[in-house]
TrEMBL record, chain A:
<dbReference type="GO" id="GO:0000902">
    <property type="term" value="P:cell morphogenesis"/>
</dbReference>
<dbReference type="InterPro" id="IPR043175">
    <property type="entry name" value="CAPZB_N"/>
</dbReference>
<dbReference type="GO" id="GO:0030036">
    <property type="term" value="P:actin cytoskeleton organization"/>
</dbReference>
<keyword id="KW-0117">Actin capping</keyword>
<dbReference type="InterPro" id="IPR001698">
    <property type="entry name" value="CAPZB"/>
</dbReference>
<comment type="function">
    <text>F-actin-capping proteins bind in a Ca(2+)-independent manner to the fast growing ends of actin filaments (barbed end) thereby blocking the exchange of subunits at these ends. Unlike other capping proteins (such as gelsolin and severin), these proteins do not sever actin filaments.</text>
</comment>
<dbReference type="GO" id="GO:0051016">
    <property type="term" value="P:barbed-end actin filament capping"/>
</dbReference>
<protein>
    <recommendedName>
        <fullName>F-actin-capping protein subunit beta</fullName>
    </recommendedName>
</protein>
<comment type="similarity">
    <text>Belongs to the F-actin-capping protein beta subunit family.</text>
</comment>
TrEMBL record, chain B:
<dbReference type="GO" id="GO:0008290">
    <property type="term" value="C:F-actin capping protein complex"/>
</dbReference>
<protein>
    <recommendedName>
        <fullName>F-actin-capping protein subunit alpha</fullName>
    </recommendedName>
</protein>
<dbReference type="InterPro" id="IPR042489">
    <property type="entry name" value="CapZ_alpha_1"/>
</dbReference>
<dbReference type="GO" id="GO:0030863">
    <property type="term" value="C:cortical cytoskeleton"/>
</dbReference>
<dbReference type="InterPro" id="IPR042276">
    <property type="entry name" value="CapZ_alpha/beta_2"/>
</dbReference>
<comment type="similarity">
    <text>Belongs to the F-actin-capping protein alpha subunit family.</text>
</comment>
<comment type="function">
    <text>F-actin-capping proteins bind in a Ca(2+)-independent manner to the fast growing ends of actin filaments (barbed end) thereby blocking the exchange of subunits at these ends. Unlike other capping proteins (such as gelsolin and severin), these proteins do not sever actin filaments.</text>
</comment>
<keyword id="KW-0009">Actin-binding</keyword>
<dbReference type="InterPro" id="IPR017865">
    <property type="entry name" value="F-actin_cap_asu_CS"/>
</dbReference>
């Protein structure tokens, strides 16, 4: 398993799906570990009842079917597929509505789904998913990207309700972006990072508002570190390989 | 369970193919780490050795890896242009042939090149002049660059009257696993000397890769191709003209890479996710109660 996770840290993130299926076929006895530890690009299905798309993940899966957050029905249909309690289902409905507005404001498109389910220790778990195709053939409004995919997975474990409740958020963002033009050729960056955040918050504002704020803060952090730190580091590397001409010219008089 | 049994019947050939895929997709300078993991997952040395013996030579040549010669007389670049029979690679500058152990990525031996392995004096004149100019350029532009010029076609042409082709190879790699970062720059320039047209046609392919992996995995993969041409002249003049063209295109490309990076935060990245919402203020989570109240009210009024 360590070796498998080691490989996933090195293989280009845009090949995650191929790498994961290769590992699954090489080590079938580790399949559940692999599926739970390796994040892979999100898949989408269409809810036949309302025609809206929803995102698939381990948390809305039962056997080979996936539950839609819109109609609460399994696709393909599944008899006695597990459903959240009425209380949590109401929270889920509200979360999906509000998260869709949040998603639209930050992503200008994309798909989102929220799933909520009971936890073993009197709390609950919520999973917020966002998928955005930012390519110019997808929903990239500015048309800069030949290819552009952003997948975000936020899982929040919410502790038993108390004066202050514990929220434990684990977030993963996977993205690829490729620009292609005559003068600069293809330029492609792909990446995947995962972070955690713990907070104790008063439930006075409501769970949804607490979880939403945490996700918003986390997403901004992740976007910022991808942009500034991770992309920045690859840029630094390129510049040490072949310093840009200005630097060379500056250096010349000294030598 | 049935699935598992089916899948565990992966044929040896399929296992080798999967192992090769992982090896060939290793980031710059990381194939040895990948090999270690692949070996432990395969848990079968015979299959691993088979995969490694097929994948390493391809990886080494496509990444233009540079190996030190055992007699300390310099380095040899592993490229398809310098490849001779039996894992041997020619270093035209020192007219030596190095034997390479692909999987260990080391030179195991070196011998002087035989006459028939080297180009004719006529070709050598063009090759050698260009090598000198490229060497000057690479020393200036790359802090740790390695370069070589090979004859890719027509090495036995004795004098004017026939076409020939040289290949300029530039490779710069930087491995700093302690800083969680590796990268490589590879450029290959095919230079065709057309005798009849008295022109020299130049085609370049540049490939740049970088991997940053501190608490994450982010990779750059950039490729560029370009073309240019100049006049077929005496060897010295050709060398200056060709290296000038290469310098020009590589400098331009470097500038366009910088430009791509600079446009990331505010334009390119925005098509994935904005820094701030369209409203330019943080999302009003405190009002979400209102959102849902509005919804309730709308529902009751049947507005939807």
């Amino acid at each position: 398993m360590d070796a498998a996770m080691g490989l996933m840290r090195r293989i280009p993130p845009k090949h995650t799906e191929t790498a994961l299926s290769a590992l699954l076929s090489l080590m079938p006895h580790h399949s559940s570990d692999l599926l739970s530890q390796v994040d892979q690009p999100l898949q989408v299905m269409c809810d036949v009842d309302c025609g809206k798309e929803f995102i698939l993940c381990e948390y809305n899966r039962d056997a080979d079917s996936y539950r839609s957050p819109w109609s609460n029905k399994y696709h393909p249909p599944l008899e006695d597929g597990s459903l959240p309690s009425l209380e949590l289902r109401n929270l889920e409905i509200e979360a999906n509505d509000i998260f869709a507005i949040y998603r639209d404001q930050y992503y200008e498109g994309g798909i989102s789904s929220v799933y909520v389910w009971e936890d073993d220790n009197d709390g609950f778990v919520a999973c917020f998913l966002i998928k955005k195709d930012g390519s110019k053939t997808g929903q990239g409004r500015r048309g800069y990207l030949e290819e552009g995919a952003w997948d975000a997975i936020h899982v929040i474990e919410v502790g038993p309700e108390d004066e202050n409740t514990n929220y434990r958020l684990t977030s993963t963002v996977m993205l690829t972006l490729t620009t292609d033009n005559e003068s600069s050729g293809t330029f492609s960056l792909s990446g995947s990072i995962r972070r955690q955040m713990n907070m104790r918050l008063s439930v006075a504002d409501g769970h949804l508002s607490n979880m939403g704020r945490m996700i918003e803060e986390m997403e901004s952090k992740l976007r910022n570190s991808l942009d500034q730190v991770y992309f920045g580091k690859t840029r630094e590397m390129v510049c040490t390989l072949r310093p840009p001409s200005e630097v060379v010219q500056l250096r010349m008089p000294e030598s | 369970m049935a699935d598992e049994e089916e899948e565990s019947e992966l044929s040896d050939k399929q296992k080798v193919e999967i192992a090769k895929w992982f090896l060939l997709n290793s980031p710059p300078g990381e194939i040895q780490y990948v090999a270690k993991d692949v070996k432990s997952i395969l848990n079968d040395d015979v299959l691993f050795d088979e995969a490694a013996s097929e994948a390493f030579p391809v990886y080494n040549k496509s990444h233009l890896i540079c190996l030190a010669l055992p007699n300390r007389s310099g380095d040899v670049l592993v490229t398809s242009f310098s490849e001779l029979e039996g894992n041997a690679f020619l270093d035209p500058r020192t007219t030596q042939v190095a034997t390479v152990d692909h999987v260990k990525q080391v030179c195991t031996g070196v011998r002087p090149a035989a006459d028939e392995e080297l180009p004719s004096p006529y070709i050598e004149e063009y090759r050698c002049s260009l090598d000198a100019e490229i060497l000057k350029y690479v020393e200036e532009a790359y802090p740790k660059g390695v370069c070589s010029v090979y004859c890719a076609n027509g090495k036995d042409v004795e004098g004017p009257g026939a076409d020939f082709e040289l290949a300029v190879v530039i490779s710069a790699a930087r491995h700093s696993p302690q800083n969680f970062c590796n990268g490589s720059w590879c450029s290959i320039w095919n230079v065709e000397f057309k005798d009849e047209q008295q022109t020299v046609e130049i085609k370049g392919k540049i490939q740049v890769g970088a991997h940053y992996f501190e608490e994450g995995n982010v990779q750059l993969d950039a490729k560029h191709e370009c073309k240019d041409a100049t006049l077929f002249q005496a060897s010295d003049d050709c060398a200056v003209a060709i290296s000038g063209i290469i310098r020009h295109h590589e400098t331009e490309y470097m500038a366009s890479l910088e430009a791509s990076y600079l446009s990331l935060p505010d334009s390119t990245f925005k098509d994935l996710r904005r820094k701030l919402p369209v409203t330019r203020t943080l999302f009003p989570w405190h009002n979400t109660l209102q959102f849902s109240l509005t919804r309730e009210v709308s529902k009751e009024l049947g507005i939807k």
